[in-house]
């Protein structure tokens, strides 16, 4: 492997000082002269026809500078990445409680918040559809009457002959798993400002925006402006996790419409309740798996039916569920596969992109099934994965042969297993905890309650704490795959003093790509990272590089930055070699100097820039990177879905209190193969954060919905994991040698999140002898095998 | 959203008492962890408040003093000080423990012991420990000065005997003889910043294998933190064996069911309260493994 000067070494994060000292500027920190605020007007309904909106109670009020609704939209009134089904302002129907019919705009936000309830909206309530499994019933309420039914998308995958496979199986397991709505929980709620620049220049948007180029496209469509007249600048981001995409596009469009109407800057900012109310969530999945296998543990056939609750709008459902159909069988060879993934409309909060993007759900199901098969055959979870796991040359469910990259599945699994002494612990726990299943002994009637215990049900303190260890493994396609065009660009401009501007079209969302990209450029140009100044994200400067999603930044952006830096380097080599009359091969770049081994001459990098300038070479360039070819056949779900893959294994070690259902997570060992680690501390941060979010998904986090309305409207009820929840996270990187991007650096962000819930679920089985099928596995799930919810949404403290 | 209000910052208790006297729209601001969030939520309990009297500048309000027989804690003492106080740790360990698991460190640096029981949420974590220690509180106004057991002060959720012109100034704890032992258990959904699902404090004495004194207090599972006197009476004088403890735990379930009726959380909380009660009594009587 290449010897690096900067890559893989700890470096100071580009934005560390500002963030640690509280001086970083987030969208809500900006104010502009004459700035107004926009406050949302909603309707207390989950599904209704809007009959009439009466503004008379607020129209004359001096606090209200303008009332903005759909009538003010000059061009496109509904938007969406695939289906244009989501109105900027609703005018025909309300399809979920987050919907907005109008916005009051004025100088005093507090007064507007008091006035908004005075807008009178007359509406006719419609039947509310909350169960995605009923959405395709013939008599189901139609969410969007312009479509013939409530289907958002259907992906089939057909491989081999599943029925023949089941006939050849010695055992068949059939099981249903469910997962919940998840809130992103970015620490900074939504904030955006639209600034009108006059007819000639259009509008500028400054906000907490994940994908500035997408926002630009949406705002331009809504205002009927060319892309060049919508300039989107990204403020510092307080977290996104996939959540500041559609949501911010729509808020930006609302602010822009108001800014154009009033000819003044307009800010929209949400508090936590409003953020949870309107923003999209991770999809709840209903997953039915039927798996056939032999006495020897070989998987023969899988039949999978998945229904994803898309909620009120299509949003990213077609992309999210596509990743699901590709990866639903897990990193295992299965000859015969029949998979149907459906996403459907309901009146629930809409669902879209969230870190993981269609993988945490099937992994929760499929990794538990692998353990169930092992238990059924008296094997260990390791053995069953050894038998079926992908190796070089394996063929995926979509018929893709894995032969163009290192298939590190067994490497990551074995490393995690060795590191934790997994097999021995798992076997011991399985034996020690054999008595617990009887203790939990759920009533068959799920509603039957036993309030008063009998003496023999009481558990002595020395019997109450049970150890469990659980393993989960995955493979994940890197970047967009066959879901979209996969190209990136990066702008690099070296200055005559040896410093350099860098900007990629992908956005810094807190993941640290500014630092990672500076590392890539610094490595190639022989600079220290502090010489590179990363510019703020601005659609007027950076070329559109597609969305900052799919754990693609390091891979795709790294490729573009590398290309840019190599271009500049070649020009500098040419110039310096010419100046010194030495061969190009003799020139090296390191430690802010440029040297030749031929004449033992050395100049500062800045002087080398001077030489290059003198030789009339351009010190600025735009680098470009394009992903290799991928393919997909819609009808059969066959094709080379992604051009390369990463593999991961996480092992959770827990203790369960079987008297209370409490789960304590003591250690998570996370082994990933992200290719080359460019930004070491950034990579560690991804693991710590992803593991914590994954465990949170498995135990605490849940948005529950009652008649379309969310119960958990703030972070006192929506339980994010705190820094105290996991005692120890051990991160281990297996560095492979892929050829893509910057020295084969691949994906890490989402792989770290997708395994936690499944590993914890398997550990809980190991601790309790009991399998739980419904995420999250919280206190009630463990003791009662179901969830409990309060009957009303009122709080006692009010 | 917070409307405008006046904030006063007296330097002495007397000054604070004068300020609150005759001003029914004034409220005391100690840590602010209930008051400020209450404002934000538009809570009916704070809707009429126009004045906040900040007691943080009154030294006596956050002093912990120890004598041979007592520890007196200023009602405005933040939990962090209580958790770190050697006298509290030595003589009232259940209080130290229960205060140490409230909210987060940042919350414990602000939130006060007095605020915990004056707010009187069902889940106030320090209350069960204070109840088994039979804490008394001192309540002052410009014209009165009275003491009462904390148990009598707590009326119902978010309601106490505090009158509009009064301030709770002290929590008074009487030391116990060496024979007493106790345990506290808090069950939350997560480890950090957890609102209790249930809490229990048990405190008592076993002599010659007989339970000669026992105090049991619950929180979060009952409408407010409270002693379970009926259960204590049944247990006192019983042999300190597994069977008595099991009977007591089951009895507790019945008593709580009687007090609270079947709430949405009952299918979980009632059985778990019996488990936790049994385990805490078990540990009290037989010691830790």
Largest sheet of chain B: 5 strands, antiparallel
Strand content of chain B: 25-35%
DSSP E strands of chain A, number: 30
- What would CATH call the architecture of the largest domain in chain A? 2-Layer Sandwich
Look up the CATH topology of the largest domain in chain A. Answer: Aldehyde Oxidoreductase, domain 4
Please tell me the overall pLDDT of chain B. Answer: 95
Distance between the termini of chain A: 63 Å
Radius of gyration of chain B: 19 Å
- The SSE order of chain B reads EHEHEEEHHHHHHEEHEEEEEEEHHH
Overall description:
The complex is a heterodimer of chains A (798) and B (289). Helices cover 27% and strands 24% of the residues of chain A. Chain A is α+β, with helices and mostly antiparallel strands. In chain A, the strands form eight sheets. In chain A, strands 3-7-1-14-11-12-13 form a seven-stranded mixed beta sheet, with helices on both faces. Chain A has a five-stranded mixed beta sheet with strand order 9-17-16-15-10. Chain B has 289 residues and is of the alpha+beta class. Chain B has twelve helices and 14 strands. Chain B starts with 5 loop residues before the first strand and ends with a helix. The mean pLDDT of chain B is 95. The chains are: A alpha+beta (798), B alpha+beta (289). At the A-B interface, helix 3 and helix 20 of A face helix 11 and helix 12 of B.
Question: In brief, what are we looking at here?
Answer:
Chain A is of the alpha+beta class and 798 residues long.
Secondary structure layout plus pairing:
The complex is a heterodimer of chains A (798) and B (289).
Chain A: H1 16-21, E1 36-42, E2 48-54, H2 56-59, E3 66-69, E4 78-79, E5 86-87, E6 93-94, E7 100-106, H3 109-115, E8 120-125, E9 151-159, H4 162-167, E10 171-178, E11 191-196, E12 203-207, H5 212-223, E13 230-234, H6 246-262, E14 266-269, H7 272-278, E15 285-293, E16 299-311, H8 317-327, E17 336-345, H9 360-377, H10 381-388, H11 409-420, H12 422-432, H13 436-440, E18 465-477, E19 487-494, E20 500-504, H14 513-525, E21 532-534, H15 553-580, E22 587-590, E23 593-596, E24 601-604, H16 605-614, E25 620-626, E26 645-657, E27 662-672, H17 680-699, E28 705-706, E29 709-710, E30 726-733, H18 751-754, H19 756-768, H20 779-784
Parallel strand pairs in A: 1-14, 12-13, 16-17, 20-21, 27-30
Antiparallel strand pairs in A: 1-7, 2-6, 2-8, 3-7, 4-5, 9-17, 10-15, 11-12, 11-14, 15-16, 18-26, 19-20, 19-25, 22-23, 23-24, 26-27, 28-29
Helix pairs in contact in A: 5-6, 9-10, 9-19, 14-15, 15-16, 17-19
Chain B: E1 6-8, H1 13-20, E2 26-29, H2 35-41, E3 51-54, E4 64-66, E5 70-74, H3 79-84, H4 86-91, H5 93-100, H6 105-110, H7 113-119, H8 127-132, E6 136-140, E7 145-149, H9 150-153, E8 154-156, E9 159-160, E10 167-174, E11 181-188, E12 196-207, E13 210-219, E14 226-227, H10 229-235, H11 242-260, H12 266-286
Parallel strand pairs in B: 1-3, 2-3
Antiparallel strand pairs in B: 4-5, 5-10, 6-7, 6-10, 8-9, 11-12, 12-13, 13-14
């Amino acid at each position: 492997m290449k010897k690096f000067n900067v890559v893989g070494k700890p470096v100071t994060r580009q934005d560390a000082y500002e963030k640690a000292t509280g001086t970083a500027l987030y969208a809500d920190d900006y104010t502009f002269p004459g700035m107004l605020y926009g406050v949302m007007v909603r309707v207390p309904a989950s599904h209704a026809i809007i009959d009439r909106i009466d503004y008379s109670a607020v129209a004359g009020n001096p606090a209200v500078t303008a009332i903005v609704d759909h009538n003010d939209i000059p061009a496109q009134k509904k938007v969406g990445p695939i289906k244009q089904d989501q109105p900027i302002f609703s005018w025909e129907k309300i399809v979920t409680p987050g919907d907005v019919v109008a916005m009051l705009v004025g100088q005093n936000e507090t007064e507007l918040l008091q006035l908004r309830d005075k807008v009178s909206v007359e509406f006719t309530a419609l039947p509310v559809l909350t169960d995605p499994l009923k959405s395709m019933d013939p008599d189901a309420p139609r969410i969007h009457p312009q479509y013939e039914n409530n289907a958002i998308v259907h992906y089939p995958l057909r491989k081999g002959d599943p029925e023949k496979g089941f006939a050849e199986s010695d055992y068949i397991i059939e099981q249903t798993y469910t997962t919940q709505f998840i809130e992103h929980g970015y620490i900074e709620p939504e904030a955006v400002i639209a600034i009108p620049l006059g007819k000639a220049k259009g509008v500028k948007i400054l906000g907490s925006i994940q994908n500035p180029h997408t926002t630009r496209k949406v705002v331009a469509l809504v205002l009927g402006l060319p892309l060049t007249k919508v300039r989107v600048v990204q403020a510092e981001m307080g977290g996104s996790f996939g959540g500041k995409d559609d949501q911010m596009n729509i808020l930006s469009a609302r602010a822009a419409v108001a800014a154009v109407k009033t000819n003044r800057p307009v800010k929209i900012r949400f508090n936590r309740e409003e953020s949870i109310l309107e923003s999209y969530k991770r999809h709840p999945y209903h997953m039915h798996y039927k798996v056939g296998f032999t006495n020897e543990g070989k998987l023969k056939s899988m039949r999978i039916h998945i229904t994803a609750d898309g909620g009120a709008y299509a949003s990213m459902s077609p992309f999210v569920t596509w990743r699901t159909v590709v990866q639903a069988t897990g990193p295992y060879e299965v000859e015969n596969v029949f998979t149907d993934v459906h996403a459907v409309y309901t009146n629930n909060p809409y669902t879209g992109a969230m870190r993981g993007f269609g993988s945490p759900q099937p992994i929760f199901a499929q990794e538990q099934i692998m353990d169930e098969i092992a238990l059924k055959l008296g094997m260990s979870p390791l053995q069953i994965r050894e038998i079926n796991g992908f190796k070089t040359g394996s063929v995926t469910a979509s018929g893709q042969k894995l032969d163009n990259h290192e298939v590190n599945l067994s490497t990551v699994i074995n490393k995690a297993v060795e590191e934790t002494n997994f097999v021995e612990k798992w076997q011991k726990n399985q034996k020690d905890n054999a008595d617990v299943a009887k203790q939990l002994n759920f009533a068959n009637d799920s509603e039957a309650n036993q309030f008063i215990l009998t003496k023999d049900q009481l558990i002595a303190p020395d019997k109450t704490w049970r150890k469990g260890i659980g393993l989960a493994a995955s493979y994940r396609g890197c970047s967009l795959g066959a879901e979209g065009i996969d190209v990136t660009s990066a702008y690099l401009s070296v200055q005559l003093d040896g410093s350099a501007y860098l900007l990629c079209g992908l956005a810094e969302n807190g993941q640290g790509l500014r630092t990672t990209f500076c590392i890539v450029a610094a490595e190639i140009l022989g600079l220290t990272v502090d010489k590179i100044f990363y510019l703020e994200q601005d659609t007027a400067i950076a070329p559109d590089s597609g969305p900052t999603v799919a754990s693609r930044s390091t891979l795709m952006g790294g490729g573009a930055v590398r290309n840019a830096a190599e271009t500049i380097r070649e020009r500098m080599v040419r110039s310096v070699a010419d100046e010194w009359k030495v061969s190009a091969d003799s020139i090296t770049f390191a430690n802010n100097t440029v040297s030749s081994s031929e004449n033992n001459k050395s100049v500062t990098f800045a002087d080398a820039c001077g030489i290059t300038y003198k030789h009339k070479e351009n010190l600025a360039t735009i680098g470009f990177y394009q992903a290799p070819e991928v393919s997909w056949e819609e009808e059969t779900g066959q094709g080379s879905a992604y051009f390369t893959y990463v593999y991961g294994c996480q092992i959770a070690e827990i203790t369960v209190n079987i008297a209370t259902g409490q789960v304590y997570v003591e250690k998570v060992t996370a082994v990933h193969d992200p290719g080359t680690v460019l930004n070491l501390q950034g990579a560690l941060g991804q693991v710590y954060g992803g593991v914590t979010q994954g465990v949170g998904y498995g135990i605490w986090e849940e948005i529950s919905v009652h008649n379309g309305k969310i119960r958990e409207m703030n972070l006192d009820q929506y339980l994010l994991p705190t820094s105290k929840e996991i005692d120890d996270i051990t991160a281990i990187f297996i560095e492979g040698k892929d050829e893509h991007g910057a020295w084969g650096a691949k994906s890490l962000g989402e792989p770290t999140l997708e395994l936690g819930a499944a590993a914890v679920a398997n550990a809980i089985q190991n601790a309790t002898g009991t399998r739980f099928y419904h995420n999250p596995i919280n206190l009630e799930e463990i003791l009662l095998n179901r969830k409990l919810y309060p009957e009303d949404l009122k709080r006692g403290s009010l | 959203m917070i409307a405008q209000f006046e904030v006063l910052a007296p330097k002495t208790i007397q000054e604070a008492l004068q300020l609150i006297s005759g001003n029914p729209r004034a409220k005391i601001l100690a840590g602010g962890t209930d008051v400020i969030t209450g404002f934000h939520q538009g809570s009916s309990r704070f809707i009429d408040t126009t004045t906040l009297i900040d007691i943080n500048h009154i030294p006596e309000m956050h002093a912990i003093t120890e004598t041979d027989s007592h520890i007196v804690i200023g009602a405005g003492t933040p939990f962090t000080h209580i958790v770190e106080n050697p006298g509290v740790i030595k003589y009232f360990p259940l209080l130290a423990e229960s205060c140490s698991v409230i909210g987060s460190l940042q919350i414990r640096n602000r939130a006060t012991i007095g605020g915990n029981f004056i707010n009187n949420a069902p889940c106030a974590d320090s209350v069960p420990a204070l109840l088994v220690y039979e804490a008394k509180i001192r309540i002052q106004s410009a014209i009165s000065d009275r003491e009462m057991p904390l148990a009598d002060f707590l009326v119902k959720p978010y309601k106490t005997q505090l009158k509009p012109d009064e301030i709770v100034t002290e929590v008074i704890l009487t030391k116990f003889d060496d024979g007493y032992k106790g345990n506290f258990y808090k069950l939350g959904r997560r480890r950090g910043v957890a609102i209790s699902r249930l809490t229990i404090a048990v405190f008592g004495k076993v002599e010659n294998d007989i339970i000669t004194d026992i105090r049991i207090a619950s929180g979060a599972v009952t409408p407010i933190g409270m002693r379970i006197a009926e259960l204590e009476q049944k247990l006192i004088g019983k042999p300190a064996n597994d069977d008595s403890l099991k009977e007591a735990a089951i009895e507790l379930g019945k008593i709580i069911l009687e007090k609270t009726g079947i709430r949405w959380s009952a299918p979980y909380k009632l059985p778990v309260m019996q488990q936790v009660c049994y385990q805490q009594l078990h540990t009290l009587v037989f010691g830790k493994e």
